[in-house]
TrEMBL record:
Record protein name field: Alpha-1,6-glucosidases pullulanase-type C-terminal domain-containing protein
Lineage of producing organism: Eukaryota, Viridiplantae, Streptophyta, Embryophyta, Tracheophyta
UniProt-listed InterPro entries: GH, Glyco_hydro_b, Pullul_strch_C
SUPFAM superfamilies membership: (Trans)glycosidases (SSF51445), Glycosyl hydrolase domain (SSF51011)
Source organism (scientific name): Gossypium lobatum
Domain Alpha-1,6-glucosidases pullulanase-type C-terminal per the UniProt entry, residue ranges: 167-234, 256-362
């Protein structure tokens, strides 16, 4: 999501931090190379959203059907490795290396606003929150926690590790981080820490906390976000053997509770569209999971992650004609941006603001 690795170039960008769509000046290669990197990152994230299941089948950016175990990164390591969702813990930041807000502040173009960086922070945490499997959040992710770009703060004391639960400060810009693990990056770090436009205000921190709380409430509004078995996410392939010869065997796509729509070579860059479907009598193989006694009952959910710096739209024939509406928690949110998200049933057309996660739900007919 963030780009690169702790041991690579510090400015290498990823899906959330502006790769291809908002260059920071780092040489990633040609535009075609950047597009391929972004497409590959999207596939990796999609496997992660499906609980990193080794057997989950998706259509990759080339239009090929691949299992999670056939999508590779880090020198040939499979992205999909788990047999069930409870075997994977998903996170975008942890105690090691820079905090989420700090790495976003380092990798994004210097000229973008602090509001944009705050939205990227929330986009990253919302992807984790709406992923199948076990979500893990580094303390302070929800309040834009900063260690002033210290990448190894185990011995940096409270000065760099402070968590301010009054929400008056996120601890950005309290000083140049210690020499031992940070000296090589000082030329990049120092001007950013000295620039007051990088520092979030209390209003930014409060908004981040509220948005984070909203997305957790969305996760717990439906068991469809917390599927417990691999078969609940996607049933195994079915092979039909004809009576003529083995060469005529057919491999049928399984019923898909979790599915991705913006796939193949015609994908919209920076856009991930995931649907989660509950079972009903018309869908053999999918059981109904959303209980009838809860306040919010959804038969179909579409989550759109827009990492683009601009409002973007996406249309899908598969998603046409549904009764989707913005999730009630987002429809009543204090975030005025997410409220601008829209869906047009006649065309299956979704419009989502820049750097925004929008959740659309179809209420179950009772």
């Amino acid at each position: 999501m963030l780009g690169g690795s702790p041991f690579g170039p510090p400015l290498q960008q990823g899906f959330v931090t502006g790769l291809l769509l908002e260059p920071n000046g780092h040489d990633h290669g040609t535009k075609d190379v950047e597009k391929a990197m972004l497409a590959s990152a999207k596939d990796h994230i999609q496997v992660g959203l499906a609980a990193n299941l080794r057997g989950f089948v998706l259509t990759d950016f080339e239009g090929k059907e691949r299992k999670g175990s056939e999508v590779f990164c880090y020198g040939g390591t499979p992205v999909g490795y788990a047999f069930c969702p409870t075997e994977t813990v998903n996170y975008v930041s942890a105690h090691d290396n820079e905090t989420l807000f700090d790495i976003i502040s380092l990798k994004t173009p210097v000229g973008i606003s602090v509001e944009d960086r705050c939205r990227m922070n929330h986009l990253a945490t919302s992807i984790i929150a709406l992923t199948q499997g076990i979500p893990f959040f580094h303390a302070g992710d929800e309040m834009l926690r900063s260690k002033s770009l210290d990448r190894d703060s185990y011995n940096s004391g409270d000065w760099f590790n402070r968590l301010d639960f009054t929400y008056n400060s996120n601890n950005w810009g309290v000083g140049l981080p210690p020499k031992q693990k940070n000296e090589n990056s000082w030329p990049l770090i120092q001007p950013r820490l000295a620039d007051p436009s990088f520092k979030p205000q209390r209003s930014h921190i409060l908004a981040a906390v509220e948005n984070f709380t909203d997305v957790l409430r969305i996760r717990y509004s439906s068991p469809l976000f917390r599927l417990r078995t691999a078969n609940a996410i996607q049933l195994p392939f079915v092979t039909l053997r004809t009576h003529h010869s083995e060469t005529e065997d057919q491999r049928l796509l399984p019923p898909e509770r979790v599915r991705f729509h913006n796939t193949g070579p015609s994908w919209v860059p920076g856009f991930i569209v995931m649907s989660i479907e509950d079972g009903n009598e018309g869908i053999p193989g999918l059981s109904q999971l959303d209980p009838m006694w809860v306040l919010m009952i959804f038969s179909y959910i579409v989550v759109v992650f827009n990492a683009c710096p601009t409002e973007e739209s996406f249309s899908s024939p598969t998603l046409r004609g549904r009764t989707l509406q913005l999730h009630p928690i987002q429809a009543t949110s204090t975030d005025e941006t997410v409220k601008k998200s829209s869906y047009e049933a006649s065309t299956g057309w979704f419009t989502v603001p820049a750097r925004t996660t929008s959740v659309f739900v179809e209420p179950r007919k009772i």
